[in-house]
UniProtKB/TrEMBL annotation:
Subcellular localization, as worded in the UniProt entry: Cell membrane
Native species: Kitasatospora kazusensis
Membrane topology field: Multi-pass membrane protein
Entry's transmembrane regions: 21-38, 58-79, 160-178, 184-203, 265-287, 294-312, 318-335, 356-378, 384-404
The protein's name in its UniProt record: MFS transporter
């Protein structure tokens, strides 16, 4: 990994610096590493906590999981607007990270109350909504146009390193305290606070000078970015594809039920996803710079199509489990950083945070719809029919998006 200062290399200057990753990107990666250790300690045990400890149904789990992913939509847009309008991405990101850290203490306080859990999860995701777009804007604005994929790949690699360590930490704690999930929640809070401190002390904001005649950044202007045909098509297909995929929680619960895994092993399922994600994030991010991030993003969804096929086929055993988790992690590595690199090419600097927020909000709405639909269909039709239906929908969306891409329309 090569490092440079957080100032982007001027366009047209041919040098090795165009392939370097800014120090600001690495520091943001460290913040995300610590935050993901914290959040994955919690999210790796939440599905089993819902169903085994609290006795919630799959429909109720779907509601909470959808809330976990979709509650941030409106605050995400407001936070991005403030970050762009005042050209101050770091303060908004700090507020989001701090809010999510505090919510880790709210989980043990909520106990078995569905209303309490819903409130805590909504506030936690609101914190994620505040921080994600400003953080990604800082990554993008700290990098050259030629290294967007590499920069996001490095960040996602470090982020996923945290996602790898989080379930291990949860597993280690549960091995000692059995089903005392409160210990996991409190430990998660302590790690999250470290992430906030790194952000405060080591990450530099990107305050580009106000350019004469530049349009004012308003909430309406942020949504007005959808008037651009390429960005609008991107957002449409991202929303549809998110709706046609299923959340990590349902992937892991399906595997757990097919293989009848003991509760203490459940947090380790996330490691099977994190390992290939960690290994492939940087090389696939660099590949996106060469072959085009949108094509790689669409191709990555073929991995998830195979995940759904394997789960729908009710395959069980170690080999099937390894295949599902390996494909799941490859899907994330091929879609996460490339999507952000693609969006960065479409958005103007002065409204990049708002543009990221618009796209990520639509992603979150797709996730919310997916979790609700999956939980409802699972209850009414069972797992096999539900997984087959989602696979059919995903294949249809990919086919249309691929045809438009081939024609040069996406």
């Amino acid at each position: 990994m090569y490092l440079s200062s957080s100032r982007s290399t001027p366009l047209g200057r041919a040098s090795g610096a165009t392939r370097r990753v800014a120090a600001n990107v690495v520091m943001l990666g460290l913040v995300s590493l610590l935050t993901d250790i914290s959040s994955e300690m919690v999210s790796s045990v939440l599905p089993l906590y819902y169903t085994s400890v609290l006795g919630l149904s799959m429909l109720q789990t779907g509601f909470l999981d959808g809330l976990f992913n979709g509650a941030s939509v409106f605050l995400r847009l407001a936070g991005a607007h403030l970050a762009d309008r005042f050209r101050a991405r770091k303060p908004v990101a700090v507020a989001g990270y701090a809010l999510s850290a505090l919510c880790k203490l709210g989980l043990p306080a909520a106990g078995a109350s569905l209303a309490g859990l819903s409130t805590v999860l909504a506030v936690d995701r609101s914190g994620k909504g505040l921080r994600t777009a400003p953080r990604d804007a800082l990554i993008s604005l700290s990098s050259t146009p030629e290294t967007q994929g590499r920069a996001f790949g490095v960040h996602r690699m470090m982020d996923t390193a945290g996602a790898f360590c989080g379930p291990l930490a949860a597993f280690a704690l549960l091995s000692v305290v059995a089903t005392a999930y409160d210990a996991v929640f409190v430990a998660s809070f302590c790690v999250a606070v470290l992430g906030v401190l790194v952000l405060l002390l080591f990450v530099r904001d990107r305050r580009e000078p106000a350019a004469p005649g530049r349009p004012a950044v308003t909430l309406g202007a942020g949504l007005g970015l959808l008037r651009d045909a390429a960005f609008r098509r991107t957002c449409l297909f991202v929303t549809l594809l998110e709706t046609a995929t299923i959340s990590d929680a349902f992937v892991y619960l399906t595997l757990q039920r097919q293989d009848d895994l003991a509760a203490r092993w459940f947090p380790l399922l996330a490691l099977g996803t994190a390992a290939p994600y960690l290994l492939l994030s940087l090389p696939l991010g660099a590949l996106a710079d060469r072959v085009g991030p949108w094509r790689l993003y669409l191709g990555g969804h073929l991995c998830f199509l195979l995940v759904l096929a394997l789960l729908a086929g009710s395959h069980s055993g170690p080999l099937a489990l390894v295949l599902v988790l390996g494909l799941h992690g490859t899907f994330y590595a091929a879609t996460d950083a490339p999507l952000m690199a693609h969006a960065a090419r479409l958005l103007p600097d002065h409204a990049r945070t708002s543009g990221f927020a618009v796209m990520q909000s639509l992603q979150a709405l797709g996730m919310f719809a997916s979790s609700l639909l999956f939980g409802l269909a699972y209850r009414l039709q069972g797992p096999h029919w539900t997984l087959a239906a989602f696979g059919t929908g995903l294949l249809a969306c990919l086919t249309v998006a691929a045809v438009l891409t081939k024609r040069g329309s996406a």
